[in-house]
Write a structure and sequence with these properties.
- GO terms for molecular function: electron transfer activity; heme binding; metal ion binding.
- InterPro entries: Cyt_c-like_dom, Cyt_c-like_dom_sf, Cytochrome_c_Oxidase_Subunit.
- This is C-type cytochrome.
- The structure is a single chain.
- The protein is mostly helical.
- It has a domain of 71 residues: Orthogonal Bundle (Cytochrome Bc1 Complex, Chain D, domain 2), CATH 1.10.760.
- It is 57% helix and 0% strand.
- Helix 3 runs antiparallel to helix 5.
């Protein structure tokens, strides 16, 4: 019985630590999720998966779309006048998501 309690306590602590690492869901996630999925897995053909991308890459890419450095009208319209804080929340959210494992035999 003691072993069971020790294991249960350990799992509880581990799950709480994992949950603490997950950033809060961004308020502006809705429009992004329409194409990229709430967990960063694309919902439409041609939209890239964002789950697990590097935080700095996502942060820069979002700023570049917003500021027009990356000339993709759809992304610029979707992002609109978003603050740096909102962009940071989105980047943190998607970088913290776990992409599904690659199927065996896929490049």
């Amino acid at each position: 019985m003691r072993t069971f309690l020790v294991v249960a306590l350990g799992l509880t602590c581990a799950l709480q630590a994992l949950a603490a690492d997950m950033p809060p869901k961004p308020v502006r996630l809705g429009l992004c999720a329409a194409c990229h999925g709430e967990t960063g897995m694309a919902q439409i053909p041609g939209a890239p998966n964002l789950a697990g991308q590097k935080l700095d890459y996502l942060r820069k890419a979002l700023k570049d779309y917003r500021d027009g450095s990356r000339d993709v009208p759809l992304m610029r319209a979707a992002i609109g006048p978003v603050s740096d804080a909102d962009l940071d929340q989105l980047a943190r959210w998607y970088s913290a998501q776990t992409p599904p494992p690659q199927a065996a035999g896929q490049p």
